[in-house]
Predict the structure.
Amino acid sequence: MKAASIALFSAAILSLAAGSVPAQETPTEREAAREVLKKMAALEQSLDVPGLVSRLTAANPARDQVVGRARELIDKELLALADDITRNPEIGFVEHQSIQKLIDYLKLHDFEVQVPVAGLDTAFVARFKRNNGAPNLGVILEYDALRGTTRAFHGDQHSAQGPVGIAAAVAMAEYLDRTKSSGSVVVFGCPGEEMMPPNAKTVMFEAGVFNGMDVLVRSHSSGVTSRPAPGFGTCCMNIDGVKYIFSGAPSHQLQPWNGRNALEAVIHLFVNIDSVRSSIRPEARIQGVIPEGGAAPNVVPDRTAADFYIRYPDAVYLEQVRKFVDDAARAAALATQTKVKIDFYGKTRDGISVATLGEVGFAYMKMFGATKLAVEPGKPQGYEETGSVSSAIPGLGFSAYSSNAPNHTYEMESDALIEVGHRGFTVDAQSMTALLFDFATRPDYRAAVKREFEGIKALFGEYQEALKKVYTVPSVPDPK
Amino acid sequence: MKAASIALFSAAILSLAAGSVPAQETPTEREAAREVLKKMAALEQSLDVPGLVSRLTAANPARDQVVGRARELIDKELLALADDITRNPEIGFVEHQSIQKLIDYLKLHDFEVQVPVAGLDTAFVARFKRNNGAPNLGVILEYDALRGTTRAFHGDQHSAQGPVGIAAAVAMAEYLDRTKSSGSVVVFGCPGEEMMPPNAKTVMFEAGVFNGMDVLVRSHSSGVTSRPAPGFGTCCMNIDGVKYIFSGAPSHQLQPWNGRNALEAVIHLFVNIDSVRSSIRPEARIQGVIPEGGAAPNVVPDRTAADFYIRYPDAVYLEQVRKFVDDAARAAALATQTKVKIDFYGKTRDGISVATLGEVGFAYMKMFGATKLAVEPGKPQGYEETGSVSSAIPGLGFSAYSSNAPNHTYEMESDALIEVGHRGFTVDAQSMTALLFDFATRPDYRAAVKREFEGIKALFGEYQEALKKVYTVPSVPDPK
Amino acid sequence: MKAASIALFSAAILSLAAGSVPAQETPTEREAAREVLKKMAALEQSLDVPGLVSRLTAANPARDQVVGRARELIDKELLALADDITRNPEIGFVEHQSIQKLIDYLKLHDFEVQVPVAGLDTAFVARFKRNNGAPNLGVILEYDALRGTTRAFHGDQHSAQGPVGIAAAVAMAEYLDRTKSSGSVVVFGCPGEEMMPPNAKTVMFEAGVFNGMDVLVRSHSSGVTSRPAPGFGTCCMNIDGVKYIFSGAPSHQLQPWNGRNALEAVIHLFVNIDSVRSSIRPEARIQGVIPEGGAAPNVVPDRTAADFYIRYPDAVYLEQVRKFVDDAARAAALATQTKVKIDFYGKTRDGISVATLGEVGFAYMKMFGATKLAVEPGKPQGYEETGSVSSAIPGLGFSAYSSNAPNHTYEMESDALIEVGHRGFTVDAQSMTALLFDFATRPDYRAAVKREFEGIKALFGEYQEALKKVYTVPSVPDPK
Amino acid sequence: MKAASIALFSAAILSLAAGSVPAQETPTEREAAREVLKKMAALEQSLDVPGLVSRLTAANPARDQVVGRARELIDKELLALADDITRNPEIGFVEHQSIQKLIDYLKLHDFEVQVPVAGLDTAFVARFKRNNGAPNLGVILEYDALRGTTRAFHGDQHSAQGPVGIAAAVAMAEYLDRTKSSGSVVVFGCPGEEMMPPNAKTVMFEAGVFNGMDVLVRSHSSGVTSRPAPGFGTCCMNIDGVKYIFSGAPSHQLQPWNGRNALEAVIHLFVNIDSVRSSIRPEARIQGVIPEGGAAPNVVPDRTAADFYIRYPDAVYLEQVRKFVDDAARAAALATQTKVKIDFYGKTRDGISVATLGEVGFAYMKMFGATKLAVEPGKPQGYEETGSVSSAIPGLGFSAYSSNAPNHTYEMESDALIEVGHRGFTVDAQSMTALLFDFATRPDYRAAVKREFEGIKALFGEYQEALKKVYTVPSVPDPK
């Protein structure tokens, strides 16, 4: 019974780049990414990001003037606006008052506002009226609150994103206008980040709302001042959100054979999934609930529904996992003579992060007084949660330390109203302005960002191809 | 492969008493009831019910006077009250306005009203103030409407039960009072007949509300003028209503091993039940729904619930069926390391019907002009749905033809407001009064009812004992 | 909650023809058969079977002479041959010694024997060498023993069928030959009655082996002397025997995602069936076993199999039941990404019985001394177990009392060797000879049998059509 | 939706000791082992194993003489004996001829043989007749062949273990005897290594068979010349082998309610396990088969059985996994009203490996000409597969390169008969003799081995305690 223990445990001896968290979470992924990661290391070395950071963050009165204007707006008006929104939380897709306040402010500062966009009532796009060609600077705002057990609340501090982003947008727009520089500023109001369906940014992206942007920035609350490592990835796996709706035929309990039981169908969706858990790689996470489980115990249920989040570290094997779950639903319908509708209502995918934005942004956050600094870059990931925008357009999420509480807590909401929050928002607004200034005024910087982003995007494509090769599906012969 | 086909099909050759529907629905039950049914036939023969009917329904001016008074109340006031309640439907346990109207009327006619009773807000007991000892005549009223998809509605015509019953109660109370006869009249307001939990009449019965009654009557809408055969039974099997509530431990979807999944538990309750369906006699009906099936797909559900109706033709084997379902729940909890609470919230059981009341009542319905007469008596069953009262106290449900629509329809509600309904309610009120008159004034009749009821009750006990003997549980040896 | 109890229990009040067991076992079937049964009663009345019986069983020296010859063969040689076969039991499809003994005897009496037939090693056809046209008299012989826990045994007394049938065949062949009468005698050796697959008689029937026969007779052990009522039916429901074979992909237990689990597939076949048990009419019986359930616990099983008997009282709804089971298998394969092969290896269906043969045969059994007489005819059913032959060609199974033990017991085997068995076999041989004599010599009798058989066959077709109309499949809308 | 990605992926950044494969396979285990591994590193450093190796493998004519004698026995007789056993393979527990050959040889060389031992027919203990106190040198022999699809075969080369071990045992016994040195030699014949139940070495160990041994050695075929790192571990997880046997009650398919279905029980064992797969840490491997799945489709199965291997990287959490599976079986019995017997028939657990034996053995293998050398030590693991002996008594498995084929192949069997195998066996015999010589003659060496072994054993205990602390069971509140 001597077994070759080597293959089984080879995962563990993969030597890891000291300190940073890799995007590849499974042995199979690390194996597939081996060549890609070598090329990425070469790309990063060729960019000399530390040199770039030094040059950009050197003394620059013009930049400081624009940053000062953003600071002025924040101090005078926008922190107050943030507090106002914090105190009047609205959950996703009904943030009507919140966007009205943001839109009013933008209009006052010469932005032209389109609302709704992409069929979403509380999505908007605001363009500075005197925009002047490329480069196109985009600022993403979010404003939805969380659903608490007793009330909506801003436990993720989205309430401050609008004011912070607007400070940078207005300051940059005024600068470009005043100096007659080439460049445009566009603000994107993005609803319902915490909810799906729909997946708002993906809907907007697919409707072409972000077309033409050269860079996108966003601010977000955080317990530490951090930035992602360059690469591709996501915080919490690639996700498919899917609803399975079953219909049967009703019948009185006394003659159930005259009906078809949609509850049995939804139950066997779960049972079928359980039957293949051991045939699916162990890193998958498949979890569902039954929001509709039948109406009355004396009638055969004719309608039921289940809601699932299906996750895997990469999108390639996720497709195979998803097929297992869809087949589980189809099999449940087949066995129970019911019908199923598969409603694939949303997804999150790997985004791209670049060091040319991440390290410069991080340096500015330090410069403008951010504390609680993460020494090493975090896991590579996009600046927004769906991956649809952040894998297509370079950008950066600013995350200066703004709370002592974990995300999604009532304590983080409270912190939004006091010193710790205000200080973080101010740092984000200043750093965002500085980075946009550099991006707008330095063609060589834009070229470096573009080169890095395109390079990583190509490597991400290579990685996906490599994964497709390793995830072979077992061959099953016909039974005899 | 010659098989003894005889045992398998012997059920079919049981010779049935011509025309009438037996309470025994399975071969096993019919086998167990063989001796009991013989004794019951002898009991019935000894009572000479046809002779009794002839004697009672012969000309009787005193009776006709009391019946005339009931008719007067109906014509002048109570049909209008019925229409009023029909037009203002209230569902079970919130029939506040409906009972107020009935109570007001009863108080006006010298009844003393206690409300609430037995902890039920809309249950009441009304006693005539000048009640005078035995015999105790009880009248059951119901008044709850059905839950429709868009509104509450009186699709079962419970709206008329109060007015009909009150007509008889007031007429009889006045008669006893006027003639200084011995006897008492009590009216029982019983809420929520269409809903459980709670099972209102059972709750009231167990609280002693019906104690001391010698007879109970009730009126109910019907598509035909009918009466039950003497015996014991129920319309739609003996039922246990049970809720199974599971608790687990919550955990984020990414680390499900830190939780315990209450949704898997409730799912496996159903799966476990399905696994023994073929080990349970085929007449059982077990049907459930999942009103609580977990909250969010990215969190391991820590609370779920299922609601079941468990039915079997008799209560003895129902206990074995119930044990299978309870064990299915316990096994689901055991396997998933969750906990389960078994909430047995209601039941219906066999009631008792007697020919001495049924045939006399039927004869009066004919006499007072009922049409659409069922030639043969229907299945034996109690005069109320739970069986708790109707298996303890003799009584009769009056069901003169009052609608052309099936029960539980909007059409039956409409019929309550027009000729067909009004005529049926009037017949019920007159017949009920006549029967109560006979019962109050003829000790020999009371004795006959009592003898029949006690006889059938004893035979029901014998039948239950016989069933216990035939439903042996298979013996399972220890595995080796 | 007043419910219409009438529809639910109408089954029970169907008035049954006194005494005899109907072929229709469910309320739905009885409803569908109502018109057909009326027509069948008219057909039977028109045949005047009692008159026919009187005429045929009247004194007839020619018949008695032939019967005497059969008796002589039985007494001198064939009971000894029966004992010999009883003492040397061989199970189905390997009855090599048993058939050799029968074939040797037939050859000795001028029969020409073809073996094997229809691809079955131990099936044979023996034709009298001087056969002379129509009518064609067929005698079915069986000879397979049962599989006991410790040894093969003749617990169903098939060991005597050959000798009994040969006595009648030889006696009739000699008679026709001697009298130069028109007519032929053919003996059919049918293996493996107790086993499938294959379903031997169906295989032989479909190969045309029985083509041209005008009547078929068989003898079978019994605890009572009985005959079936005229009609169509089967002892123990219509049956589909089906094997479901699953293939997956093997993998070591440590990396199960590299395999596809055929054991999960077969398990979920059962689970899927259980999920629809309450959606199938309760008279269905679906029962399976897992003869192949995987090889080693440390390897993902790549081949499994389940074996099912699927039963329903009629073949029409059986098709719907079968679809549920087949779909359960397909769904199990779909959900587990395995493959399934559905091997429908055998079936039993309703056969046809006619009173013109049954009552005459019964009268002869009485005449030749049979005891333990069943007063009423038994359930209608064919003279062989598959229904394939017995629904196409008229015939009769002779069942004189030949044992005090139930079928399929070691005691019934013992009885084959003593007085009770020998007496029954002798009665069967004599009665069979008498009936064949009448059939061969009386054209009017042949016409009556034919008219009854064709009439019932047509009515069976009408019944099947009627069933198709009542078994509607619930309609399931698309989910929204 | 900003999530703390750090906790989730911290596993990946644990810095690993370069090159060697750790015994800890999960993040939780590595976390729990942190302190233990530090202490182990200190222990190893304090032992100066490289220095020890240098001293022992220096020139030593006495040792060379004894090694030469082993070589002589191998060359002249024992390779031929190995070939003989290879050509006459016998599977586990019936190795009667194989042990007879080994026993005969041992007796010829003055060993006293006890057979059977510990209740195992083909287990034996052979003690040299002139044994002379401590130290006690034990040699383990195995000799069982593998079960092939068509024949038994020595695909793991156990056929050579006896001859190799005997060469060393005889050479050392003769040396101690000749030189009147203190010391004893005992040979342990251990059957059925490839099969359980029973787990032969564990049975022998628990019967005290190995009591008193100071060191144990064994030879085993290998594709590379290797040795384990010091520590504790197992090649392929800790395993519980468990059989679940269900009993029900039989019944004909037509009346299944008279039975209790043991097949449903075993099916729901699997279904129950599947229901908690997502509640169990993903490194667990639970895989079963159904060797007994019911007998006939027309009878309710009354006996079934499932056979499981349950694995987890450590024995502490394995207990929790095991409880899930046992509870799944108990729940299946509870739900189906059957009974279950849990037969825990065998287990494998972490063994202990020490560098003081491993590195010295490896140096000798090199010295005696082994090729295909593994540069780094392999995963820590015991010298025998159960862990029961190897976690209690220090020892070493010798694995010189002896085949070009993977273990458990017909090719490895062939290699046992040619140059590559013979050379490996010879190297093992010589190295084993040399190591035993050192152990017998050098008290300081014995002390070092003992110190290392006791140290690691204590650390293993600490590790188990640390694991117990981290594997908390979620708390489940009572449902309300």
Observations:
- Chain C touches chain A through 50 residues (CB under 8 Å).
- The radius of gyration of chain C is 25 Å.
- The longest strand of chain C covers residues 238-247.
